Amino acid sequence: MSVESTAKHPIPAGFEDALLKPADYSRMYEESVSDPDAFWGREGKRLDWIHPYSVVKNADFTMGKVSIKWFEDGILNASVNCIDRHLPTRANQTAIIFEPDDPNAPARHITYAELSDKVNRLANVLLSQGVMRGDRVVIYMPMIPEAAYAMLACARIGAIHSIVFAGFSPDALANRINDCGAKLVITADTAPRGGRRTALKSNADAALLHCSDRVRCLVVKHTGDQTTWIDGRDVDVLRLMDEVSPDCPPRPMNAEDPLFILYTSGSTGKPKGVVHSTGGYLVYAAMTHQYVFDYKDGDIFWCTADVGWVTGHSYIVYGPLANGATTVMFEGVPTWPDAGRFWAVCDKHKVNQFYTAPTAIRSLMGQGPEWVDKYDLSSLRVLGTVGEPINPEAWVWYDHHVGKGRCPIVDTWWQTETGGHMITSIPGAIETKPGSATLPFFGVSPEVLDAQTGEIQKGNGVEGVLAIAESWPGQMRTVWGDHQRFMETYFQQYPGYYFTGDGCRRDEDGFYWITGRVDDVINVSGHRMGTAEVESALVAHEKVAEAAVVGYPHQLKGQGIYAYVTLMNGVEPSDDLRKELEIWVRTEIGPIAKPDLIQWAPGLPKTRSGKIMRRILRKIAENDYGSLGDISTLAEPAVVDELIENRMNRI
Ligand code: 6R9
C-alpha cells in the first residue's frame, strides 16, 4: 500500500459541536490567505491591547531586506493577556495544575489569583535586581510552576527571557548566557526527574565561571538539596518574593518588542537565538491552541513537552494562559515509576486534551497496552503529536489504545521558528490520515518546491522541499544579534520564500506529509540537533582528529546519532575510549547529544576539495550501502569499503 493511498479517517462522532466544522475551515482558510489584513485584523482582537493597532501585516521576504512585522503600532503586555484580564471572571479557576515527579507527592492547583500574586512578586524581584525593559534573563529550570512565573514576570516588565533546557550542560548554558548577554540567570537547586536529580544550581555555577562577574543567579529552593552559595551573586528568590509587593504595574510593550529568545540548532555552527515578538506570537499561540485542540472553557489541557522547548512555550504557557485555560505542568517522565504514568496523570486530573511526541508514544507502545488499559481515559477528547513525523503504527496504536477511536489526532507540524502550528489537522474540521500533518493552518501558504531548481510543484501528488510563501503572525523576526544570518538561513536558498529545511510530499488529496529534514539537522526523540554541534564537541577532545555525524533510523528515538571518528595519529581505538567520548559529548552538550553509535574511521570520504560526503556516510549509517550512487568524485574511494566493512548498524 503506498502512503498516498491511505484512506482518510473520518471525524469521530461527537464533534458536531466542535469550534470549527469542515465548512468553517474552508471559508476561514480562504479568507486568511486572500485577505490577511481583514482576517488577522479580527483575530488580533482576541488579545487585550493597551493601544489598538492600525496596521496588521507588514512583511517582506526579499533577500537582503527581510522584515517581518505584525500589528506594529499596537501596544500590549503579554502577562496582562495571560493573567490580569482573566481575574474578573477566573480568579479562583485553576490556571496551572502541577504534577510533581514523585507520584505520591500532592499535585498543586495554582489559581489565576495565585498566578497573578506570584508573577507580580517575581517581577518586582527582577526589578529589584536591576533588570530593565529589553534586558535578557536566562531561565534554566525544572518543569515547575516557578518556570512559568519566571517567563511571565519577564514579560510583565518587558525583559526578554531565554530558556535553556535543563538537560543542557554548563557549557551549553554558558554559551547561551553569553550570546544574548543575559543580566541574570534563574535556576533551581536540583531537578527531580524519573526519581533521579539533576544538579541544576551546580551546573549554573560551572557555567557562570565562563560568564561576566556581573551575572546574578536567582535560585528557587525547590528540593532543598544543599548547593554552594556565593553571597552577593546568588539570591534566594522565594524568600525575596515574600518580601516584595504583590503589585507590579505591567510595562506597555510594542507588538514588535521581543517576548523571548529561544536557541535552536541549525545546519551549521552554533545554535541560533530565535527571536519571537510580543503581539504576533501571542495572537498566533492563543489562536492555534484554541482551534487546533478544540479548547473550550473549563477543559483541562496537558502538553507533555518541557518549557525548554518551543512546544512548552506556546502550548504549556503562552497559548493556554492567554486563553484562560487550565494547563498541566508535569515534572516527571513517561516511564517512571512505570509505563503507566502518563495515563495515570490523565485519569487523575481528567485531562481533556493530551499533546505529546511520537517518541514517547513509541516507547510506551513497546511496553504493551495493559499500562493504558489500567486507567480511565474517558475524559480525553483530543490527542496531539509534535516533534517529528509519526509512523502510522504508532498513530494507530495511539488512536486505538489511548483515544479508543473517539479522539481525533492532530499531527501538528511546526518549528521553533514558526511560533505555533503550521500544518495540522483540526478536530471537527479536518479528516486525518495516519502519518500526515494534513492541511495548512489559517494564514499559512505552503509550497512544495523542487529542491534543485526551486520551481513550484503545482497540483497534487508532488514531492520536494517545503517552503512558505507568506508571513504569518507567529513567525520569528530575526536571529538574536545577527539579522544577516537570519536572512541567509531562511530566505536565501529559495528567493521569496521562508525555507523550512524539511522535505515534504503533497498527496492526491492535497494532504501534506513531512518527510524529515533535508539539511544537516537531526531529530532525536523530537529534539533538534545540528550534526555540526556534535562534531565540534567530538573534535574538541584531544584524541580526536576529525569527526562526521549523521542521523540513522532508530526504532524509539526516530533518529539516532551515528558518529564517524578519526583518531589522532598513534591513538588506539578501544571500547574505553568509545565510552570516554560518549561521556565527553554528554558533558559538552547534554545527555540528548550522546552518540548512539561511534564508528572508528581511519579516513572519511571526501571530495577533492576536502568536503565530507555526508550522503555516503548517511547511507552507510542506514545500512543501505548498496546504493551509494556516484563515488567517483571522491579523493580516496577506498575509504568507503573500509567504512562499509566496519559499519555499526547492521539491522
Ligand atoms: C515544534 C518543534 C522542528 C522540526 C521540523 C520537523 C520536525 C516537528 C513535526 C515534525 C513531522 C510533525 N517536526 N513537528 N515533522 N511531523 N508533526 O518540534 O520545533 O524543535 O524547532 O523542530 O521538527 O523536521 O522542522 P523544533
TrEMBL record:
Family statement drawn from the similarity comment of this UniProt entry: Belongs to the ATP-dependent AMP-binding enzyme family.
Protein name: Acetyl-coenzyme A synthetase
An example molecular function term from Gene Ontology annotations: acetate-CoA ligase activity
Sequence intervals crossing the membrane: none
Acetyl-coenzyme A synthetase N-terminal domain sequence ranges: 25-82
The organism of origin for this protein: Paracoccus aurantius
Residues binding ATP, per UniProt: 387-389, 411-416, 502, 517, 528
Protein's job: Catalyzes the conversion of acetate into acetyl-CoA (AcCoA), an essential intermediate at the junction of anabolic and catabolic pathways. AcsA undergoes a two-step reaction. In the first half reaction, AcsA combines acetate with ATP to form acetyl-adenylate (AcAMP) intermediate. In the second half reaction, it can then transfer the acetyl group from AcAMP to the sulfhydryl group of CoA, forming the product AcCoA.
InterPro entries (alphabetical): Ac_CoA_lig, ACAS_N, AMP-bd_C, AMP-bd_C_sf, AMP-binding_CS, AMP-dep_synth/lig_dom, ANL_N_sf
PTM statement from Swiss-Prot or TrEMBL: Acetylated. Deacetylation by the SIR2-homolog deacetylase activates the enzyme.
This protein's record includes keyword Acetylation: yes
Entry EC no(s): 6.2.1.1
Residues that bind CoA: 193-196, 311, 525, 586
CDD domains hit by this protein: ACS
